[in-house]
Write a structure and sequence with these properties.
heterotetramer, A mainly alpha (294), B mainly alpha (408), C alpha/beta (287), D alpha/beta (426), B: 408 residues, mainly alpha, two-stranded antiparallel ribbon, 4 strands, 2% strand, globular, C: 287 residues, alpha/beta, Rossmann fold, six-stranded mixed β-sheet, four-stranded antiparallel β-sheet, 10 strands, 21% strand
């Protein structure tokens, strides 16, 4: 039973990583219906942003704090570029978007390989994030706490943006009824762009955060993108709440499976659970029921 | 509105010679392909190149199935590698068992496992069981999985993501069960194929002929399916699933049939791939190979009959010959193909030919193979693609040009 | 739409052919009636339909009206299994609620959508053939269509699309698509027809024809029409149900309903009833 | 197909009949081929016959490495050092007076492609020998091809052993030259509780089987054994288990990117090399940068070569390599083994005075080379080479420094026949 608490935390932490990876998707896929396979590469771009920033600002702490907003900007701008050039032509063809963005992800990966070289690069963690803090009898890595906090902050910020700001109102209006929003004077084009910018920007932030945990290489994103999509699918479209619940749930489940079986089997079991779950709730954990869903 | 119009394109005013030409073109095309495959290719290609072509033909079988499920049925099947792999592994297991030494235990099990053949391998000692399993097991799995997700109206993107996750899970499972699946090594080192020595070039050639023959049969089967009432229904489900439901059909069943056929095709492709390539490994079944299979289909024209076949063979060929000289360039090229073709030529290169032909013969003919209205400069809408438009938001820009013009 | 050809525009409804379609013995329809009791549909806490009772008998041509968000389409969705609903709904002695859509359809309930949803890439003939074929066996389905089934032939004539039968439905004019949908309901052999704004986008002449067609169908079968167009309603409705905010506000003949002061108030005072603040909620049910 | 108009159905019927006819012909043809093959019985002539052209003043050899896909990171470095060796050999007059003509191929990180390209190199390009492969799966995939054509493969990477093909020369370490020395070192250091962590594939599983047997025979307790799928990125659970197990040493057979996530997690939960060192067998100089020196400094690796090995041959190799590819490029064990493999082949050919496969196999035994890692000698029985084993410590400069080395080269023993405790392993 000693393992219960640490495993719970491991699951929570895994969930927070999944959430960071999936939060942007919850916007772009969940709210806009765009299947962006290059989402993972936006994360990679964020991670490389952290790398570049650290080359320029050797202090690891400063560079991390600078990287977070910059990663948002880089991811967001890449997303904006993608939206304007390709995705905007394809809103009525969601499945084709998947293939096109898969092509984009191939290109971005190869570009990263050509620019930064194939080997992984390293981003140093700041001193105040190294090591662990004792918490409830466990040694909790500071990086994991930081990412957990970052995920919480991102969710709070995003839900505030959606609830309070005019942009958020426009996004919600557009999501719920594009035509009505249009006739009510909302520029859905501008809203789409902004939504995509924000969603991709969050991917960039996730990428910066991931430099604390794992490798930084051209294929960084591929490891996360399928999982992130599963989070959104399980969470249900249209609401952040679903993504949060799904990410934490899947994280804890996976950590649990991993503890009781093996890491390989855990992945397979998780898939089985997801398919079974979708049998019960095809619309996901939380869903706004609209007529267009049916 | 952009895909090839399925079913009868007969019109009240169609001229018989036009019809005849259309039929001739299609069946003539198939006949030409048969002559090329069976007559010309073996004569001009070296054993190595011919074997390579046989490999591409096996991949093309998967493409034919994808064309049916995706192009016609609107199901973006991102996990065909699973069925390809199932077929390939079933065949490979049979070959390993029949190649096994005195104890009847495949070599890799002696190396990595405990030297005991697991019970579920045993039935595959029989060639008949193996062939039946290849034909039925993947199709059955597809049917069960398909019913499960389609019944719950999981479709579009959700289905695509699930099928992709399935491919990922399957590859991980294969890798993790090294003792019984060979792990990352996969299964290889086959010596015989149903009793025929695989080291013998004559038998390698035989494999090629079998692959070519099977592929032709698959194309004909798909053609017949497309032309049947079922083919019309499948397109109807793709474009207006709810409408079909309110006509009293269960769209899940309609889709499952196409999905299972595609799975069976992929499995047969995999089953032939294993002896042709001499190996089947998890690297052939995961997410990336599964998506790569789509490139050829997209390029050739997903909703056409021969497009997927030609597209996938062309892409395989290009990959083999280009990637060795310019590995980095190839990745860019592959990405660019995806972007360019899917975004700007959603019906593949087949539609280029169709558009040209139509422009030339405006008012006289609509090509049978190839989309009816892929180029719509006037409308300028991106709505004309068979990709599951959201229900309740049908495309209103349906002022398609040519077909109507024929009657003017 | 500039390149819509004359061939597509031409065509009129053919009432003689309709008689052929409706030739089935009247006894088949005698016991048909739709009975809805306490129908309730909830979307995430927002009640779109709240305790609707509705009885429509065979031979009636019932119009369902109400302002935006009144729940008209949601009622139809509930009856056809598109949204989950509480309460009860029976047609011809069969329970409709809780069954999958295709089974509801097989028990004789057919519907159309606000935006004509025909199979754009299939020809008119193929559209009708599919509609006629829900009971075909697998072997028939896997074969080609050798000849045109007689009921399809008759329906083609009825909805005036015989001359364009081999055109893709996508090229039809909007009104023709609506007619095609009605034709599909006929060959589908629907005994309860739920039509969602069947004359939207039609010309005056087309409305007229459609109205007559519906009237004739309504004599034999049970027809419910969701409609906004008051003029159309006045001309053809045999009875009217007015919905407001998910509840039945009034029911009766056109004259009775028009005289009802509550109806008048609702129709004149729509935006003034403080519904503006609920855009998010109501937009889940937007006409 | 007919010139006069026909009713539609008739025309379709014909076409169908026609294609069915063609198909039947095809099948009949194929049946003929099959029977012929079966009657021939023994493998026909082209299977074993070499098409290598030795008449000119050049000789073709094949380099087969992944230049794309996930393994490209590692295999590109091997290709670089192979190119360097070929260049050097050509500059020094070639082999038997013939200049090497290199045919390069991309294995694309996929076993299937390796098999296909090996086939191409042998039967289309007619190369005298092929150098390359990295993953076990790529080697296993190529093995039947080389055996079927009776051609030669030089495989430069440490691997899981249990293999000895007459058609392959293994110039990387087998298990008794890397895994066992690594364990020997831990035993010497007085470690008694080892935790095993590896990627889920052939090499780690086989290595861990050996380690388990070794541990049992040597009084070491294996306190945990965990596998992560290739490319796994979240090690919190595995490291939790590791920490809870009370291990005083870790044997790490993780591959690729997973190492980064593992070492970051390891450090972040407060584990240190002082308390529980990690011995890695797949972390070489070029990986250290990606993991981050600060995360692995002080940890150990077991290899047969480090850039820091102090020998004249190595100084020359490192200088030549960095002159060609840049001073920031480290050299590592697989690169050195690949470089050595080309020289060993040269030695064998010159000893045999022939490019013929059988002659080379005959001459191989005892061929030796003053490699950067030290003198290596080919074992003619199992086609592996005798190598010196090192355990090295990763230091702050990103390089790995030997802290222990075996007493001279260790004879290769891929089936561990010389170890009593290893009985029953294979």
């Amino acid at each position: 039973m000693d393992a219960l608490l640490p495993q719970l935390f491991a699951g929570l932490s895994l969930g927070s990583v999944l959430l960071l990876a999936a939060l942007g998707l919850a916007l772009t896929f969940g709210q806009m219906g765009v299947i962006n396979m290059a989402h993972g590469e936006f994360m990679m771009a964020g991670a490389y942003t952290a790398f570049v920033v650290q080359q320029l600002l050797p202090d690891a702490g400063v560079s991390l704090l600078v990287s977070l907003p910059l990663g948002f900007l880089v991811g967001g701008l890449l997303g904006l570029l993608l939206e304007v050039t390709l995705i905007s032509r394809m809103y009525r063809r969601p499945l084709d978007t998947l293939l096109v963005t898969f092509g984009v992800s191939l290109v971005l990966q190869q570009a990263a390989r050509d620019v930064f070289g194939a080997p992984n690069v390293d981003v140093r963690a700041p001193a105040w994030l190294s090591g662990a803090v004792p918490l409830l009898g466990m040694d909790v890595p500071r990086t994991r706490l930081f990412i957990l906090a970052l995920a919480v902050a991102a969710v709070l910020a995003l839900s505030m943006v959606l609830k309070v700001t005019p942009l958020g109102r426009r996004i919600r209006a557009t999501v719920q009824n594009r035509d009505l929003a249009e006739t009510s004077g909302v520029s859905t084009r501008a809203t789409d762009r902004l939504t995509f910018f924000v969603g991709s920007g969050i991917a960039g932030v996730a990428g910066v955060a991931l430099t604390l945990l794992g490798s930084i290489g051209p294929t960084l994103g591929t490891a996360y993108v399928v999982d992130a999509f599963l989070v959104v699918v399980v969470g249900g479209i249209g609401q952040l709440k679903g993504a949060v619940l799904a990410a934490v749930g899947l994280g804890i489940l996976q950590a649990g499976f991993e503890y009781s079986t093996t890491a390989s089997l855990a992945k397979v079991l998780l898939f089985v659970v997801i398919v079974a779950f979708l049998q019960l709730r095809p619309q996901g954990l939380v869903s706004v029921r609209t007529r267009s869903l049916a | 509105m952009s895909a090839a119009r399925p079913g009868s394109a007969r019109t009240a005013v169609a001229r018989p010679d036009w019809w005849r030409r259309e039929g001739v073109r299609l069946w003539g095309g198939i006949a030409l392909a048969v002559v090329l495959l069976v007559g010309v290719a073996p004569a001009v290609l070296s054993d190595f190149r011919l074997n390579l072509l046989a490999k591409f033909l096996c991949l093309a079988m998967v493409a034919v199935g994808i064309g049916l499920a995706w192009g016609r049925g609107g199901m973006l099947v991102l996990g065909q590698g699973v069925f390809f792999g199932l077929g390939g592994y079933l065949m490979a297991m049979h070959m390993k068992l029949s190649d096994a030494g005195p104890g009847g235990v495949p070599d890799f099990m002696l190396l990595y496992g405990d030297g005991v053949v697991p019970g579920w391998w045993e039935p595959l000692r029989s060639p008949v069981v193996t062939v039946l399993a290849i034909l039925l097991l993947p199709a059955g799995l597809a049917a069960v999985l398909g019913l499960a997700v389609f019944r719950r109206r999981v479709r579009g993107a959700y289905f695509a993501i699930l099928s992709q996750a399935l491919a990922a899970a399957f590859a991980i499972l294969l890798v993790g069960q090294q003792k019984v699946t060979g792990g990352t090594n996969g299964l290889n080192g086959f010596r015989s194929f149903f009793g025929y020595d695989l080291a013998d070039p004559v038998n390698k050639r035989m494999l090629y002929y079998i692959a070519a023959g099977v592929l032709v049969v698959m194309v004909v089967v798909v053609r017949l399916l497309m032309r049947s009432r079922y083919g019309e229904l499948l397109v109807a489900v793709r474009d207006q699933e709810n409408r079909v439901r309110f006509l009293g059909y269960d769209p899940a069943v309609v889709k499952v049939v196409a999905y299972a056929v595609a799975a069976a095709f992929a499995a047969v492709g995999g089953a032939l791939f294993a002896p042709v390539a001499g190996i089947i490994s998890p690297a052939d079944v995961g997410v990336v190979p599964s998506i790569a299979l789509l490139v050829g289909v997209a390029i050739g024209g997903r909703a056409t009959l021969l497009g997927p076949v030609l597209g996938s063979i062309a892409v395989s060929w290009a990959e083999t010959s280009l990637s060795e000289q310019f590995p980095s360039f190839w990745t860019y090229f592959q990405g660019a193909l995806f972007i360019g073709v899917v975004a700007f030529l959603p019906n593949g290169l087949a539609s280029l030919g169709g558009a040209l032909r139509r422009r030339r013969a405006r008012g006289s003919a609509v090509p049978e193979v190839g989309p009816a209205s892929d180029v719509r400069p006037a409308a300028g809408s991106a709505g004309g693609v068979p990709a599951d438009p959201p229900a309740g938001a049908p495309d209103v820009t349906t002022d398609t040009v040519d077909t109507a013009g024929r009657h003017a | 739409m500039s390149d819509t050809t004359p061939a597509v525009e031409a065509g009129r409804l053919d009432t003689e052919a309709l008689e052929q379609v409706l030739a089935a013995p009247a006894a088949r329809f005698r016991h048909d009636y739709l009975e809805v009791r306490g129908l309730r549909v909830e979307f995430d806490g927002f009640v779109a339909v709240d305790g609707v009772d509705l009885t429509v008998t065979q031979g009636d041509l019932r119009f369902l009206i109400g302002p935006n968000g009144a729940g008209k389409t949601t009622v139809v969705d509930a009856l056809t299994g598109l949204v989950a609903a509480a309460g009860s709904a029976q047609f011809g002695g069969v329970d409709l609620l809780g069954r999958p859509s295709h089974r509801i359809a097989r028990s004789g309930v057919g519907r159309t959508f606000q935006t004509a949803s025909v199979f754009d890439e299939l020809t008119v003939l193929q559209n009708l053939d599919i509609a006629a074929g829900a009971r075909r066996g697998p072997l028939t389905l896997l074969r080609r269509r050798r000849s045109v089934p007689p009921e399809v032939e008759a329906a083609l004539e009825t909805v005036g699309l015989a001359h364009v039968r081999d055109l893709p439905a996508g090229v039809l004019a909007h009104g023709q698509k609506q007619w095609l949908e009605i034709g599909m309901l006929l060959v589908q052999d629907a005994r309860l027809l739920l039509l969602d704004e069947p004359v939207a986008g039609m010309s005056q002449a087309e409305r007229e024809e459609t109205g007559l067609l519906l009237q004739r169908i309504g004599e034999q079968r049970t027809v419910v029409v969701v409609e906004h167009d008051m003029e159309f309603l006045r001309a053809f409705a045999s009875s009217v149900t007015v919905l407001h905010q998910g509840k039945v506000l009034a029911e009766g003949t056109v004259a009775q309903v028009q005289a009802d002061p509550r109806v008048v108030e609702v129709y004149l005072g729509t935006g003034a009833h403080g519904r503006g603040s609920r855009t998010a909620a109501t937009s889940t049910e937007v006409e | 197909m007919t010139t006069h108009p026909l009713p539609v159905r008739a025309s379709r019927g014909r076409a169908l009949a026609l294609s069915a006819g063609v198909l039947a012909t095809a099948l009949a043809l194929s049946a003929c081929g099959a029977r012929a093959g079966a009657e021939a019985g023994a493998p026909s002539s082209s299977g074993g016959e070499s098409c290598v052209d030795t008449s000119g003043d050049t000789i073709k050899i094949g380099f087969l490495n992944s230049l794309s896909g996930t393994m490209a990171i590692s295999e590109q470095t091997v290709r670089d050092s192979l190119d360097l060796a070929a260049e050097e050999i050509n500059a020094a007059g070639g082999v038997l007076g013939k200049q090497l003509e290199v045919v390069g191929e991309d294995g694309a990180s996929e076993p299937t492609v390796f098999a296909e390209k090996a086939e191409k190199l042998i039967s289309s390009d007619c190369v005298a020998a092929v150098f390359g492969g990295w993953t076990s799966s790529s080697r296993k995939a190529m093995l039947p091809v080389f055996e079927g054509h009776d051609a030669l493969l030089f495989y430069p990477v440490q691997y899981e052993g249990l293999e000895a093909s007459p058609n392959v020369f293994y110039t990387g370490a087998t298990t008794n030259q890397q895994i066992i020395p690594g364990m020997d070192y831990l035993k010497e250091q007085g470690k008694t509780k080892v935790f095993l962590v590896g990627s889920d594939y052939v090499f780690p599983r086989t290595a861990n089987k050996i380690i388990n047997a070794y541990a049992e025979a040597n009084g070491i307790e294996v306190v945990g054994e965990e596998y992560a799928p290739l490319g796994h990125t979240d090690f919190s659970t595995i490291v939790n288990k590791l920490k809870a197990s009370g291990a005083d040493a870790v044997f790490n057979t993780l591959n690729g990117d997973s190492n980064v996530a593992f070492f970051k997690e390891y450090k972040n939960v407060g584990l240190t090399p002082e308390a529980a060192p990690v011995v890695s067998v797949s972390v070489a100089e070029e990986e250290v940068g990606g993991i981050g020196v600060e995360n692995v400094a002080g940890q150990l690796t077991a290899w047969n070569y480090y850039q820091t090995v102090d020998s004249p041959a190595n100084a020359e190799f490192v200088a030549a390599f960095q002159a060609k590819y840049g001073a920031d490029r480290p050299t590592s064990d697989p690169m050195e083994a690949a470089y050595t493999s080309l020289y060993l082949w040269k030695g064998m050919v010159e000893k045999a005075e022939s490019f013929d496969v059988a002659a080379i196999q005959e001459a191989a035994d005892g061929v030796s080379f003053d490699a950067p890692e030290g003198t290596v000698t080919v074992n003619g029985d199992n086609h592996h080479i005798a190598k010196t084993a090192y355990v090295g410590e990763i230091r702050e400069d990103g390089l790995i420094y030997p802290v222990w080395q075996s007493d001279g080269p260790i004879e290769p023993d891929p089936f561990l026949e010389g170890y009593d405790w290893a009985e029953g392993l294979s």
